[in-house]
Amino acid sequence: PQRTERLMDLGVVPWWTWRGIRAAFWRPVTAATHWLDYRLWPDSPMRMHAQSIAWYGLLAAAVAILYRRIMGPVWIAGLAAVLYAVDDAHGMPVGWLANRNAVLAAVFGMAALITHDRWRREGPAWAGVVPVGLLAVGVLSAEAGIATCAYLFAYAVFIDRGTWKRRLVSLAPYVLVVIIWRVAWTLQGYGTQGLGLYTDPLREPAQYLNAVIQKVPLLIVGQWALPPPEVAVVIPTESVRWLWLGALVVTAGLVFLLAPVVRRSAVGRFWACGMLLSLLPVSATLPSDRLLFFVGIGAMALLAMFLQSALSPGSPRWKRTAAGFLILI
What we know:
Blueprint: H1 2-10, E1 22-24, H2 28-40, H3 45-71, H4 74-85, H5 91-95, H6 100-121, H7 129-139, H8 148-158, H9 164-187, E2 191-193, H10 205-224, H11 231-234, H12 237-264, H13 266-277, H14 279-282, H15 293-310, H16 317-328
Antiparallel strand pairs: 1-2
Helix pairs in contact: 3-4, 3-6, 4-15, 6-7, 6-8, 7-9, 8-9, 8-13, 10-12, 12-13, 12-15, 13-15, 15-16
């Protein structure tokens, strides 16, 4: 409250601001990278941006490795990696220094998935410690890192082998990390209150469910087509309803186009499940392209698989037309 009053005196926030307003996030890993910026090159924004771009380079490499391990044919994995790397939704968070947290969370999330896959396929039991630690680093980079669990769950359901008991047990350490993180996050006083920009799923379950219904279709359109979901923030309320209905139509069209890929391939089901579940954490705030790092991982894999199917010899003309449409948007 004292800081809020000071900001009100300075005119940074309006004089009618509620003094109990709060917005505090626990992101020590990301904070350490900014500390490094100001220790090494405090007067060089160019070098600060270079660090963010370097992290994005690591993310693109990690996504390419994950695609190669999961998808099989090199050219399909390579196509998906290129599509992900050039996705325009990543431009703002890479270019905005204060949004570096999203890039870091995705980097460590992908590293967790790669090492989890290696552990489940090849490694000894102790190797499972590595992905668990990487998930912890991811959520300490940004809250969005929890979306890693969407793909870990999808992996256990559609990719992993063995009994269902063994698959569920493999997820237990990740659940424990999330619980410990959330308890520590809450006990230290982190979170938001009275801001209107964020919804806490645990403290405000009804509002969060409403936010999911409203924002998931907009985020899907933001990932696969136009307009970007930020439009919903600036247009009149009545127009938002029409935008939401249009997003439902686009989503239905995507389901129709991608259903064959998902139906015939466990890998396709893995990417679809991970993509959809990773929409849930980012629905807790205002819809924006900058929230789509994890969503895009599954989306670009599905797009590459659809293009491979649609452009193969003998595919129906409507599939080739749909492939051209998807490439265009």
